Amino acid sequence: MLRGTSLKRRVVVGLSGGVDSAVTAWLLKQQGHEVIGIFMKNWEDDDDSEYCSSNVDFVDAAAVADVIGIEIEHVNFAANYKDLVFAEFLREYQAGRTPNPDVLCNAEIKFKAFLDHAFALGADKIATGHYARVREVDGQFQLLKGLDPSKDQSYFLHRLNQAQMSKTMFPVGELHKTEVRRIAAEIGLPNAKKKDSTGICFIGERPFREFLNRYIAKEPGPIKDDKGRTLGQHQGLSFYTLGQRQGLGIGGVKARGAELKAIQAQGLRGAGEHEPWFVARKDMANNTLWVVRGHDHPWLLSPTLHADSLSWVSGTAAAPAARAAKTRYRQTDAPCALAYDAVGRLQLNFDTPQWAVTPGQSAVVYEGEICLGGGVICSP
């Protein structure tokens, strides 16, 4: 349980309808703060579909507010989201990269548009249900990993700056998820057993290729292996990401009919025939998708990466030194040497080659439990 505080504040909480933000609001109220809930509506296209049910989420958030005994306001940031997050999301996909919308969403919506709205309401602080922590040391605010290693979300928050960190609280970052669920059930929250959202930030869980195809035209082209042999046809490079195994349509030894005969005719049966295919490279200039067989193929392993669009929590670039980094969420911290290349990009040289380093994703740097910041991967 969190320690109480004698300093009572007006805290505006982003209530999503999920259990983490619900328990966040309850914990703050228990500490004696004046708590106000804000439900953010950030997506309006096909909002009544089974994949994006913000109306259901709002009902859940309102029910939580009623149980806790706080006010809740419904705020529409859909225009901000479409202009600042979704437009960039589509630009990155069209360029052949794989963006992380949650990182963008936190930087532009949850800790910018939402924060500004909260302070217009007279807030002293904002709070969200993220599994992370804030620590002040000598007037500097540090972003720390959440105490539950399986739920830590500091990776998604690495673009936060000192001004944002100084105004933000993450109460559940001090807890494990099991404890959050236990508290929710104990106090009778209606969403205590609601499953966690794993879809695109504010857009929901949906068939991704089908969704993306509404905004990006298909441009079919060849799928080739590392020997230059054509295995099939892709639907458009935007629809694939490095390391992808499912949905390639080339089948391997399980290929069907004429497809199997074509593969066999090119001599692709033999060594490693039972290993799955993985996307290894995307050649935008020639509209070619390159695939390799086997999880540990050399094309999938990168000893180094470069990143740009850098953001550092302290406001000062991290000094070259031995660090650790994640190249994707839920990855174990990978030891590396931090440096900068001739054009000022972040360069991470890993002790052990990293798997499927993907342009567009974030490389996030850590010093122990402290998240220092990071950037957008531009090349392995």
Notes on the structure:
With 380 residues, the chain is α/β, with parallel strands linked by helices. The chain is 24% helix and 29% strand. A six-stranded antiparallel beta barrel has the order 12-15-14-13-16-17. Strands 3-2-1-4-7 form a five-stranded parallel β-sheet, with helices on both faces. The longest helix has 20 residues, at 101-120. It starts with 9 loop residues before the first strand and ends with a strand.
Outline of the structure:
This protein has 380 residues and is α/β, with parallel strands linked by helices. It contains eight helices and 17 strands.
Task: Give descriptors for this structure.
Rossmann fold, SH3 type barrels, Elongation Factor Tu (Ef-tu), domain 3, alpha/beta, 17 strands, 380 residues, globular
